[in-house]
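Quick check before the chapter quiz. The format below is the same one you will see on the exam, so make sure you can read both the input and the output lines.
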Amino acid sequence: MKLSLCTISFRHHLISLEELAVWAAETGFDGIELWGAHARNLAHDPRRNGAWLADFGLSVPMVSDYLPLDGEVATLLAKTRDLCRLAQVWQAKKIRSFAGTTASAATAPAHVALLVERLRLVCAVAAEHGLSLLIETHPNTLADTLAGTQSLIAAVDHPALKINFDVLHVWEGGDDVLAARQALAPHIAHYHLKNIRSRADLAVFEPGNVYAAAGLRDGMVPLFEGVVDYTGFLPTCGAAEASLEWFGASAFEVLRSDRLAVCACVGNGLRVARQPSPPALALRARH
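Here is the expected output.
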């Protein structure tokens, strides 16, 4: 399993991508999943790109953003092309978004048809750029349950459409995560890994809370200390790409320990932490 950290974990930290890259390499991560907002804010600096990050022994597997499917088509296409351009700058092969903002069971058929049409347009743009569009399994979207996700895949019917399998949210939707993983396996291109203390704590992951600097973090727990059984799940994933999506406090400590636990669980062994290459070290010294 190739394991990345997410820059969204550091959304309220005063830390540079270079500092994060040095730490990720020294800690043994394989990559850094870029939050779309961070990718856009780095676009002014042409020195920061996928080749630069490769000097640290790291890659960007995915740029994760929020495409406005309900807006004007011209705006959607412009934002999609911009996101694809950013992904190419970072040599990422995947962009991530969500399928709407309402639960699959509560979305009117006409609106489902609209979202499907818009997703097909986005897939076409992604394919033109040599990328896949990953739709995340998430509550209050058309991919909130296994059945909803399967219906969405069938309706869009585009080879560029893939799934970002967020294990906790699949469990939140009421599906067995092992059965859902098996059913969706041909379409899964990435996994998001996080956990929660109990179902009663799930509200901490609602967008209005999780993105707020003063939001609650109670109930967010390290990967192997929550209600989702990753011990049984991770060994079934094979040679997958996944990201540790941590939103809580003590990000460095939790990500470090979770990476070690994942490696032990999937039988990777404990990979030796890497030192950045001489060019990367020189960059660090200059900046």
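If your answer matched, good. Residues 282-287 have pLDDT under 50 and may be disordered.
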